[in-house]
Task: inverse folding
C-alpha cells in the first residue's frame, strides 16, 4: 500500500493509451458480464416458490403435437398432484404482425376455471378475475404486453388464426402482474373447441398440461409417474419442471451452453491479448526507469510488484466500469427475455460478480507477468544503456 500512489500515477501516465485500454477492457468485460449473467440466470437460478411446484406435461415427440384431453383426469389422480390445468398455444396474427415484430406476443387458450388455482402468483384484482372467468369472450393480458400494445380494460382484441383456422374477437377484462416472466394473453380454451366444432371437428385435445404439486418433494415422483403412465399410449408424454420447459424453447437455437461458453472464452482471450500488448509497450518504454529505480535501492521483487500493480490497477478500473455497464444492459435485456428468464434473475449475481473480479485479476497478472519479470531482472547497466 506504501507504493499505491506511485502505481496509480504510473498507470495513467500515458492518458490516451490508458483511456483506450480501460475502454477496451470495460466494453469487453461488459459483454462478458452480460453473457455470464444470462448463463447463470438460465441454468443456475433458483425457481420461485410457486414455480418450483409446477410441472409441464407435453407430447414426447414435439410440443406441436396434441394429447387426448382425458389425460387430464388421469394426471389429477396421481398421488401428490394438487391440480391440473389444460392450456394451448394459439399463435395467430395480431394487426400486421407479419411485417412489424412489435405486435407479436404469446397467446394461450386456457381452462379459466382452474387457471388461478395452478398459477397462484398471478396478481390481478378480484373483480377483473371474476369478469374474465364469467365471460367466454374475455381475455387477460400481462401488464408489459398491455403497455406495449397500448391496450386497456374494455378494449377489443382481434386475432386471426393461423395454426387453428378460427378467428378470435376478445375483450380485455383484466391486466395481471407476474414475477416469473409469464407474459402474454390468456383467453378461454372453449373458444378454440367451439370454433373447431363449427368446422366439423369434435375431437377434444390438449396441447399442454400444467401440474401443481402438493410439495417440492412430490415433484420428481409425479414426473416419473405421469410419463410411465402414458409410455405405451397413442401419445407418450414428457413431463418436466416449468423452468426446464422454458429452456427447451432455447434448444431450437442450438446448444446454448456451448455457444455462451465459447463466446465467453473468445472474449476473455481477446481481452488478454489487448491488455498484454498494452503492458508490453508500457514496460518496454520504461526499461531505463527500471535501472534508475535499482540504483535507488529498489529490489527486483519491489520493481516486479510495481509493474504488476500498474497492470492490475488498469484491469480493475476497466472491470469496474464494465461491471456497471453490464448491470445496466442486463436490465434492458431482461425486458426482451422475460418469456425465458424472470426479469429479477437476469442481473449480476454474487457468483457472476466474483467470477468477473477473478477474470479481471487474472487478466492483470497474466498480461504483465512476462514483460514485468523480464524488466525487473534486467541488469542495471543494461537498463541504463537503453535510450528508447
Result:
Amino acid at each position: 500500500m506504501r507504493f499505491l500512489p506511485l502505481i496509480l500515477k504510473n498507470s495513467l501516465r500515458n492518458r490516451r493509451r490508458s483511456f483506450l485500454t480501460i475502454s477496451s477492457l470495460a466494453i469487453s468485460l461488459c459483454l462478458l458480464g452480460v453473457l455470464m449473467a444470462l448463463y447463470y440466470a438460465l441454468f443456475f437460478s433458483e425457481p420461485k416458490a410457486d414455480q418450483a411446484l409446477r410441472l409441464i406435461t407435453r407430447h414426447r415427440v414435439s410440443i406441436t403435437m396434441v394429447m387426448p384431453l382425458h389425460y387430464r383426469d388421469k394426471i389429477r389422480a396421481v398421488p401428490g398432484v394438487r391440480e391440473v390445468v389444460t392450456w394451448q398455444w394459439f399463435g395467430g396474427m395480431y394487426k400486421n404482425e407479419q411485417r412489424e415484430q412489435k405486435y407479436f406476443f404469446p397467446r394461450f387458450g386456457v381452462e379459466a376455471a382452474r387457471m388461478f388455482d395452478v398459477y397462484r402468483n398471478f396478481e390481478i384484482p378480484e373483480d377483473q378475475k371474476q369478469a374474465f372467468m364469467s365471460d367466454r369472450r374475455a381475455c387477460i393480458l400481462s401488464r408489459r404486453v398491455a403497455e406495449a400494445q397500448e391496450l386497456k380494460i374494455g378494449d377489443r382484441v382481434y386475432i386471426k388464426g393461423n395454426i387453428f383456422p378460427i378467428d378470435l374477437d376478445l375483450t380485455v377484462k383484466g391486466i395481471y402482474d407476474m414475477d416469473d416472466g409469464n407474459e402474454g394473453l390468456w383467453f378461454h380454451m372453449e373458444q378454440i373447441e367451439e370454433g373447431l366444432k363449427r368446422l366439423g371437428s369434435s375431437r377434444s385435445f390438449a396441447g399442454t398440461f400444467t401440474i401443481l404439486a402438493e410439495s417440492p418433494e412430490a415433484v420428481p415422483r409425479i414426473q416419473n409417474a405421469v410419463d410411465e403412465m402414458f409410455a405405451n399410449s397413442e401419445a407418450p408424454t414428457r413431463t418436466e419442471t416449468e423452468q426446464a420447459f422454458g429452456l427447451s424453447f432455447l434448444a431450437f437455437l442450438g446448444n446454448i451452453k456451448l455457444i455462451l461458453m465459447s463466446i465467453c472464452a473468445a472474449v476473455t482471450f481477446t481481452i488478454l491479448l489487448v491488455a498484454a500488448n498494452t503492458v508490453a509497450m508500457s514496460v518496454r518504454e520504461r526499461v531505463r526507469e527500471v535501472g534508475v529505480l535499482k540504483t535507488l535501492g529498489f529490489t527486483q521483487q519491489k520493481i516486479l510488484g510495481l509493474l504488476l500493480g500498474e497492470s492490475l490497477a488498469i484491469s480493475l478500473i476497466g472491470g469496474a466500469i464494465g461491471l456497471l455497464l453490464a448491470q445496466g444492459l442486463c436490465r434492458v435485456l431482461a425486458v426482451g427475455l422475460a418469456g425465458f428468464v424472470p426479469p429479477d434473475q437476469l442481473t449480476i449475481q454474487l457468483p457472476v460478480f466474483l467470477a468477473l473480479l477473478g477474470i479481471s485479476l487474472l487478466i492483470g497478472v497474466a498480461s504483465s507477468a512476462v514483460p514485468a519479470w523480464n524488466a525487473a531482472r534486467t541488469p542495471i547497466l543494461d537498463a541504463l544503456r537503453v535510450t528508447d
